[in-house]
Amino acid sequence: MTTVTEAPPPLAPTPQKKPPRRRGRLTPYWLLLPGILWLLLFFALPMVYQASTSVQTGSLEEGYKVTWHFATYWDAISEYWPQFLRSVLYAGTATALCLLLGYPLAYLIAFRAGRWRNLILILVIAPFFTSFLIRTLAWKTILADGGPVVGALNSLHLLDVTSWLGLTAGDRVLATPLAVVCGLTYNFLPFMILPLYTSLERIDGRLHEAANDLYAKPFTTFRKVTFPLSMPGVVSGTLLTFIPASGDYVNADLLGSTDTRMVGNVIQGQFLRVLDYPTAAALSFILMAAILIIVTLYIRKSGTEDLV
Amino acid sequence: MSLVRWLKRHLVVIAGLLTLGYLLLPNVVVTVFSFNNPKGRFNYEWQQFSTEAWTDPCGVADLCGSLALSLQIAVWATLGATVLGTLIAFALVRYRFRARGAVNSLIFLPMAMPEVVMAASLLTLFLNMGAQLGFWTVLIAHIMFCLSFVVTAVKARVMSMDPKLEEAARDLYAGPLQTFVRVTLPIAAPGIVAGALLAFALSFDDFIITNFNAGATVTFPMFVWGSAQRGTPVQINVIGTGMFIVAVLIVLAGMVISGRRNRQKA
């Protein structure tokens, strides 16, 4: 990221050639124009429309008008706070699980895979090419009632533990929070592994040798050398997992039940089925604000602002 | 005792391979169930082996139509996002200009936003404009969210480029256009190709934004979503498996070719 701040190469030749230099000064704006216009029109402007819709009142038949009806926000929060809470909890748990599961694999690819490295990397990326909806539906088979996974969990009495924790219900895994979190973890795991791998791969192997020479045990080396150096990957990996997971409604819909609805499900339902646009816009606005605040705080705290 | 030591030594490898298994398990299930002959409308339970779906992958109404539509949208979205994104990336790396910070955040924000928020706000825009939801609204949306990813991919490549190469071209009396076409573009090409591939994959598999802005238009992910409610034909597993195999073959072929080229250089 340091190269950005460096002066760009001197493009304009000598000062006496005035016309080309002036043209050169406008060049960046011409290059930016189409793309930035696109983003302003179809990313920024919609946000304005959404904000305006959220303070409108009216009905679908008579049309909506801006009445600065901020009570919609209050109503939305008081009615749908459980879904908001669930989104944060499920996405947070899935992110933690992704880190826990993804780190060993990223480490394996970076340091232990040898000539298998490229093959494993391909295997991490390849599932992407089968539509994620089809793969999520496959979890319905894997976690099916009376299937091998449920059977194994049952015989180990793990289902009793998860039932007690409220993660599963009775002999079922499908249609429970556990299934939703499992799906979220699965779907966003590659987004954790790839940034982790990128930052682990950059670590100089001699640092490990040095730690070894200074009598650090393997775990100490990991704690004091490897993990701190992989922090940029941890930060971008957790963001790339948490942000999409918090707005997801596919996993909660396909693998969950009405008791596992997340805020994404509510927004989708209000927009596409109930057609209550103000409430849906307010919910979406709250989600956006919450995510922006969480991301900003997190980036500040972890001190890797050059990520942006 | 030696088993414990062996386990301790290879703990990371074992944990990593278990995660890899977790990642690949659904693909195995999708592949196996593409040979299923289910009893009811849903293909979730194993009944008996059959190759029927493989011999007739388009045997379900609208399935291949939706696949063709998804490919079509992905191609156009990739083209649009790659051109617009590459221009922005060059402007960001090669020029100093005002409002650079604002441009950077405008590009970063779509990547830091849950998809459902972008989807919902775009829908409010289209509804307010009275736009007809369909192919064009989906294409507009796809170009929008692919753009940032292309910029990031191309920027990384252009930034690592040695500006001296372009200076050398100019010293050798190459004009600006000639320098760009003969020197800059070939060096930036891997970044542009990476950005384009990413855009294609993102657009082809996008569901949430499409779900909001497609109206009655049915892309392949929309078809799968609908079938999860109405009944899942075995054919979607065939398509899923086929795409997986094609993608792996393309990647392997690419690796063999680039490996051979590197050997020739060495």
UniProtKB/TrEMBL annotation, chain A:
Which residues span the membrane?
29-49, 88-111, 118-138, 174-197, 225-245, 280-299
Q: Which InterPro entries match?
A: MetI-like, MetI-like_sf
Q: Which Pfam families match?
A: BPD_transp_1
In this chain, composition skew of type Pro residues spans 7-17
The chain positions of domain ABC transmembrane type-1 read: 84-298
Where do the segments described as Disordered lie?
1-22
**Primary subcellular site in the record, as a coarse category:** membrane
Compartments, as annotated in UniProt: Cell membrane
Protein's membrane topology? Multi-pass membrane protein
Keywords for this protein: Cell membrane, Membrane, Transmembrane, Transmembrane helix, Transport
Protein name as annotated: ABC transporter permease
Query: Which organism does this record belong to?
Result: Streptomyces ureilyticus
Its lineage opens with:
Bacteria, Bacillati, Actinomycetota, Actinomycetes, Kitasatosporales
Automatic annotation (TrEMBL), chain B:
Q: Which Pfam families match?
A: BPD_transp_1
Establish whether keyword Zinc is in the entry: no
- Domain of life of the source: Bacteria
* Transmembrane intervals: 12-35, 73-93, 105-127, 133-154, 180-202, 234-257
Name the Gene3D superfamilies for this protein: MetI-like (1.10.3720.10)
Q: Which residues form the ABC transmembrane type-1 domain?
A: 67-257
Which InterPro entries does its entry note? Bact_Polyamine_Transport (IPR051789), MetI-like (IPR000515), MetI-like_sf (IPR035906)
**Keywords of the record:** Cell membrane, Membrane, Transmembrane, Transmembrane helix, Transport
Does this entry carry the keyword Transmembrane?
Answer: yes
Query: Where does the protein end up?
Result: Cell membrane
Q: Which PANTHER family match?
A: PUTRESCINE TRANSPORT SYSTEM PERMEASE PROTEIN POTI
* Family from the record: Belongs to the binding-protein-dependent transport system permease family. CysTW subfamily.
What is this protein called in UniProt? ABC transporter permease
